[in-house]
Hints:
About 35% of the residues lie in helices and about 15% in strands. The chain is of the alpha/beta class. About 50% of the residues are buried.
Amino acid sequence: MPPPDHRRWAAAGFATRAIHAGQEPDPGTGAVIVPVYQTSTFAQREVGVHAGWDYARGGNPTRDALEAAIAALEGGTHGFAFASGLAAGDTLLRTLAPGDHVLLANDVYGGTYRQFKRVHEPWGLAFDPVDLSDLDAVAAAWRATTRMVWIETPTNPLMSIFDIAALSDVAHKRGAMVTVDNTFASPYLQQPLSLGADVVVHSTTKYLGGHSDVVGGALVTSDGALAERLGFLQNAIGGVPGPWDTFLVLRGLKTLAARMRVHCENARVVAGRLVAHPAVVEVLYPGLATHPGHEVAAGQMRDFGGMVSFRLGDEQAALKACARFQVFTLAESLGGVESLVEHPGRMTHQSVAGSLLEVPGDLIRLSVGIEDPADLLADLDQALG
Ligand SMILES: Cc1ncc(COP(=O)(O)O)c(C=O)c1O
């Protein structure tokens, strides 16, 4: 069985690639859907002679299909699937060496910051959180040892926007690589490699999986040397997903375009209601013309995404409102078909409390799902009183 070749679909539109790239009907059985190869090992005809797979940490046909599909959606040549978004990031950072320095967006996902601070810094990697929208601040923080700029845009949970093309230009002139965490946007809305980034990281747990039923991660690059190193590290470290999890993400990908269109529409409606609500003191959503990153977002994203954060001016008010939602479920995570609400300060971003990245206590984050917008608005109204 030949490994999936997604280049056949390179000229197709996004939604077509999401359904077909890397996912040809099974040549042996005709199965239209890539099967779940629930096996840890593969028979060899003679020593070293096999159908392309030997041991499933190194590769599995279901995982290969997912990797080819994600690469095709990001416009990259090589995809790698992992057991979680953080496992993907960890493996990528192992391409650096102790003594290297990373400039990190000053509003990344709390778990990313925690990994830098408590795993990679003790191991010898230096890093500085910087406001990446300020190129003077980037220049001031640059060191002779800076090897990577780690962008997240839009950021979790403050919805900051960073200019991927401008930052890639600066980083490449100085000999550093650019990583973009594309989890919030998904490749449907934003394709960082086409804007100059070297590698994309995903929590596939979110929009790519899309149904809150799997934890996973991915890396995509078009840099052959980096891909070779990542392939080695993926197998050598072993933070890989099992076949069922890769199957679930692959199934989620097929509807990514359709889901993202509704997420974006619903988020726009929700943000509009929040802006008009007297209890809300600030709405953080890049689709608003008043958002400081609006123009950059409009230039590098197809639409503004399904995430909306807002502030109520008071932490107790935010905690009480979170508990009142009925259609939005109070839960961590994001990017699934169902709407979720959470309090970042006490939930997803507890790990950055007391750090430079601490988030305001009056902040509420919404992952706007694909339910009927009238039901979402009614829930918002009753929860905010
Ligand atoms: C932007 C972003 N990146 C990375 C991660 C980590 O992903 P995972 O939970 O799949 O390890 C998350 C999780 O919330 C996230 O929101």
